[in-house]
Amino acid sequence: MNPEILTAAQARRIALAAQGFGRPRPAAPGKRDLLKTIERLGVVQIDSVNVVSRTHYLPAFSRLGAYPRPLLEELAWARKRPLFEYWAHEASLLPLAAQPLFRWRMQDARDGLGVWKGIARFLHERRDFVDRVLDEIAARGPLSASELEMGHKGQGGWWGWSESKRAVEGLFWTGELTTATRRGTFERVYGLPEKVIPRKILDLPTPPRDAAQRELVMIAARAMGVATERDLRDYFRLPVADARARLGELVEAGALTPVTVKGWREPAYLDPAARRPRRIEAQALLSPFDNLIWFRERTERMFGVRFRIEIYTPAEKRQHGYYVLPFLEGEALTARVDLKADRKAGVLLVQASHAEPWATAETAVRLAEELRVMAGWLGLERVQAEPRGDLAGALAEALAAS
């Protein structure tokens, strides 16, 4: 039987619906809405850049609107929490139920397989020191790397980390430590898993590597709706050979359906339970690390937009700005804005604004609405648009008209 053929527009709508777009935002989003959103996504990337808001707060805002920000901190770092931190896509927040699904990765880190070779070598060669770090945390309770006055200070290698930092990060990746909380400037505080993660989670059986990876592929497939092999592999950064094998097994079992998407060069795979809306009405500013757009190849294929984060690009070479958020309007990415939260002045500053070729006169109006919602959510009093970018004039007029 030949695979079903989807149009690019059908695939885009399936993907948006799977990501939680296209439904009305709740009038007063609460903890349950927030947790359901994170569970739908399966993983939320963490990043420390705070020029607008740290990225892990933004995906829920994009989907729910102005939810109370402390709710995320409660879900992630309170004493009784439904989330935990681990290296999933990048550094990430995940539902606790996913913890057993990453034990194979923790074992790979202990064994020094693939990218974990240097970590395993350090943990092995400095095991006496590493055990002293563990003993210190066991005796004193959760500690940050800066509170561990042990070992040599940073000198090159591992981004100039101190030996204590190398030890706790290595132990985090192997699962021998986990994040107990975050402090101050978002510094990770490390604790023993048995003191942080509920016993009922730690006591769950460890699934075989192939079974855990199949479940991770399925979580990714449900979160994306329709996806290529590379899309599915990237969601949890699975090894190439493993992802390919797991995908074949899932197709053979009927858990995923091969499809052809017009305009896509690679075969695609559909979650059979995915919603197939005829239309998507969305209005959202997206973090550069939002699940919908974090795999840039998929973003370009899905929306026809080449998006790159330019934080590490010299200022004179940036095309769109330092911290740029695309604007999702309906079913398309229609604009991008370089934002900065000037907290002292109480202003959400639009440092530059650019329209995509298919943007309409309505784009600036809808973008202005969403910027005002974001400003209020961030506790800022107003939005100010600088005269940079081809959308700046229309955006300034839309903001002034409100």
Descriptive account of the structure:
By secondary structure, the protein is of the alpha+beta class. It is built from 16 helices and 15 strands. Strands 11-12-13-14-15 form a 5-stranded mixed sheet. Strands 1-9-10-8 form a 4-stranded mixed sheet. The protein has a 3-stranded antiparallel sheet with strand order 2-4-3. β6 and β7 form a beta hairpin. α7 packs across α8, α11 crosses α13 and α15 packs across α16. The longest helix is centred in the last third of the chain and has 17 residues. The protein is globular. The termini are far apart.
Element layout with pairings:
Blueprint: E1 4-6, H1 8-18, H2 31-41, E2 44-45, H3 58-64, H4 70-77, E3 83-87, E4 91-95, H5 103-111, H6 117-125, H7 127-140, E5 143-144, H8 163-174, E6 178-183, E7 187-191, H9 193-196, H10 199-202, H11 209-224, E8 226-228, H12 229-235, H13 240-252, E9 257-261, E10 268-270, E11 283-285, H14 296-303, E12 324-329, E13 332-342, E14 347-355, H15 361-377, E15 382-385, H16 392-400
Parallel strand pairs: 1-9, 14-15
Antiparallel strand pairs: 2-4, 3-4, 5-7, 6-7, 8-10, 9-10, 11-12, 12-13, 13-14
Helix pairs in contact: 6-8, 7-8, 11-13, 15-16
